[in-house]
Write a structure and sequence with these properties.
Enzyme class: hydrolase
Oligomer: single chain
Helix content: 25-40%
Strand content: 15-25%
EC number: 3.1.1.29
CATH architecture: 3-Layer(aba) Sandwich
CATH class: Alpha Beta
Structural class: alpha/beta
Number of domains: 1
Strand order of the largest sheet: 2-3-4-1-5-7-6
Organism: candidate division TA06 bacterium
Catalytic activity: an N-acyl-L-alpha-aminoacyl-tRNA + H2O = an N-acyl-L-amino acid + a tRNA + H(+)
Largest sheet: 7 strands, mixed
Mean pLDDT: 93
GO cellular component, one term: cytoplasm
CATH superfamily: Peptidyl-tRNA hydrolase
Number of helices: 6
Length: about 190
């Protein structure tokens, strides 16, 4: 069976360490763990492929900006003939406390522009997503906040958060969505 994991973020060095790029950070961690390298795909994305247990895994990062992620995801779904339930999108979430992970089988975009683009391009919301909490202070403009780098106190625990999210993705690949939700949809302390 094939599994597709898409980490969301913005391309370019100026966005590399921003909160909005946590999906890219998780995809990069998966590459490290699985000892793979990203290479240019046949569309607007970079990716790698490997076998994990009995699953063929494709991990991708769109090379479009966040708001156009759906174009790359549609290309990947078509190229690899992936059913929406066989793909997982990894992205940041302003509404979750920093470091908390939430996995869902389907659902709305929750205002996330990358998810909105994917839902629009696929014409449905029936795909799993792993949201990584980045929090957002009430008196802060969301656009500025997501495009800012992590604070020093966040950087101190960010590695653990990214490890947990990568482990959650592999749990989904190996044991399915219910197992991943049961194990990781709890408040984590970092």
């Amino acid at each position: 069976m094939k599994r597709l994991v898409i980490g969301l973020g913005n391309p370019g060095d100026e966005y590399r360490n921003t909160r909005h790029n946590i999906g890219f950070m998780v995809a990069d961690r998966l590459a490290e763990v699985l000892k793979k390298r990203f290479s240019a795909g046949k569309g607007e994305y970079s990716c790698f492929e490997c076998d994990v247990q009995r699953q063929h895994l494709i991990v991708a990062k769109p090379t479009t900006y966040m708001n156009l992620s759906g174009r790359a995801v549609a290309e990947l779904v078509d190229l690899y003939n992936i059913d929406e339930s066989g793909m997982m999108v990894v992205c940041d979430d302003l509404n979750l406390p920093f470091g908390q992970i939430r996995i869902r089988e389907r659902g709305s975009s929750g205002g996330h522009k990358g998810l909105e683009s994917i839902i629009y391009s696929l014409e449905n919301d029936r795909f799993p997503r792993l949201r990584v909490g980045i929090g957002c202070p009430e008196d802060t403009e969301a656009r500025d906040y997501v495009l800012a780098e992590f604070k020093e106190n966040e950087k101190a625990v960010l590695n653990g958060v990214i490890n947990d999210a990568a482990e959650a993705v592999l749990e989904w690949v190996n044991r399915g969505i219910v197992s991943a939700m049961n194990r990781f949809n709890v408040k984590l302390t970092h």
